């Protein structure tokens, strides 16, 4: 569990970066790459996808469990891609000037795919479909796992797990396990490892995990304990901190699976913590309280980052080096990460 001092320092840093956003990476940072943003139809995910479009990606794949929503997001990103292409064409007089070329790729294909993290069948179907994209050509260059929910009340998924456990932890981990062997097989077709990044939260550090080992030893299990409605954590964030903590533990194990005999990763895995961001994810919590409905319009704009701002941190997960394999975006030990280099 994080100390009060650490939590206060993170909040202060979040507020600071809310008013002083990190600079974007250089133009063309995702030049020619294929990027997949899981949960990319709204909020942070859509903003991250837009950044990748603007930074030269050749193809951006976004997912949602809602076909209409992901279709609207696709049209929005296509408009941005077309605007970039038009601007590049105008800058070269409608074509390439003699002896010159555009500084980075401007054409970008946007692909919308259905993925419902609440259902294992949907996760398996999506993974199988994604594996067909650029098979034998290096696969996906950057995967950003951003799908998450916050519920104000206990709500079971169709699979029988509390929805936050299902979406935020189990769904994300299952998808990663299904894709990692494919990414490993594609490594021989790549000059450098692909990137896989998870959107995490400092809320995960608010858990007191001192009893978790006992639940595991007793046979009850940590997942089974938190899946019971009587143990579902009370408070504004419900089971969100628990689900994000479980995701962090799983990420540590995933990180070990991708390190080769030479000690180098064949997929670079990172967790990216965007801090407090104003998105739709808070809607259920706000709607559950008249007091929060009054307070949110005052506090959120003043303290929380915009999606565009927070997404600047998320896309750094696609720009880390092999030495930064599983380096958290928020370091306290003095080590510099990709996000730190942009400050």
Automatic annotation (TrEMBL):
- Stored PANTHER family: DEHYDROGENASE_REDUCTASE FAMILY PROTEIN, PUTATIVE (AFU_ORTHOLOGUE AFUA_3G08550)-RELATED, RETINOL DEHYDROGENASE
Q: Identify the InterPro entries for this entry.
A: NAD(P)-bd_dom_sf, SDR_fam
What superkingdom heads the lineage?
Answer: Eukaryota
The segment annotated Disordered runs over 324-343
User: Is-annotated flag, keyword NADP?
Assistant: yes
The family classification in the record reads: Belongs to the short-chain dehydrogenases/reductases (SDR) family.
How is this protein named in the record?
Answer: Uncharacterized protein
Which Gene3D superfamilies does the UniProt entry name for this protein? NAD(P)-binding Rossmann-like Domain (3.40.50.720)
What keyword terms does UniProt attach to this protein? NADP, Oxidoreductase
**Mind giving the lineage of the organism this protein is from?**
Eukaryota, Fungi, Dikarya, Ascomycota, Pezizomycotina
């Amino acid at each position: 569990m994080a100390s009060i001092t650490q939590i206060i320092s993170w909040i202060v840093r979040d507020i600071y970066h809310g008013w002083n956003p990190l600079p974007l990476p250089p133009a063309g940072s995702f030049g020619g790459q294929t990027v997949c943003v899981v949960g990319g139809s709204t909020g942070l995910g859509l903003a991250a996808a837009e950044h990748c479009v603007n930074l030269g990606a050749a193809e951006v794949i976004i997912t949602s469990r809602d076909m209409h929503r992901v279709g609207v997001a696709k049209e929005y990103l296509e408009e941005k891609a077309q605007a970039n292409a038009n601007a590049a064409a105008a800058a070269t007089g409608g074509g390439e000037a003699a002896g010159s070329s555009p500084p980075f790729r401007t054409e970008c294909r946007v692909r919308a795919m259905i993925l419902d993290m609440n259902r294992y069948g949907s996760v398996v179907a999506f993974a199988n479909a994604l594996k067909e994209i650029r098979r034998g050509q290096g696969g996906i260059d950057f995967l950003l796992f951003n799908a998450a929910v916050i519920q104000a009340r206990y709500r079971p998924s169709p699979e029988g797990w509390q929805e936050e456990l299902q979406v935020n932890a189990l769904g994300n981990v299952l998808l990663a396990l299904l894709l990692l062997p494919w990414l490993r097989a594609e490594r021989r077709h790549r000059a450098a490892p692909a990137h896989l990044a998870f959107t995490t939260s400092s809320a995960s550090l608010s858990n007191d995990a001192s009893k978790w080992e006992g639940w595991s030893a007793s046979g009850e299990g940590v997942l089974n304990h938190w899946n019971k409605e009587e143990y579902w954590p009370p408070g504004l964030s419900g089971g969100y901190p628990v689900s994000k903590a479980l995701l962090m533990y799983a990420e540590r194990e995933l990180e070990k699976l991708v390190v080769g005999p030479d000690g180098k990763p064949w997929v670079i895995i990172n967790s990216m913590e965007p801090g407090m961001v104003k998105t739709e994810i808070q809607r259920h919590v706000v709607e559950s309280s008249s007091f929060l409905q009054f307070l949110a319009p005052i506090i959120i704009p003043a303290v929380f980052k915009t999606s565009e701002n927070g997404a600047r941190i998320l896309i750094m997960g696609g720009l880390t080096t092999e030495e930064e394999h599983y380096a958290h975006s928020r370091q306290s030990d003095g080590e510099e990460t990709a996000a730190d280099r942009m400050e």
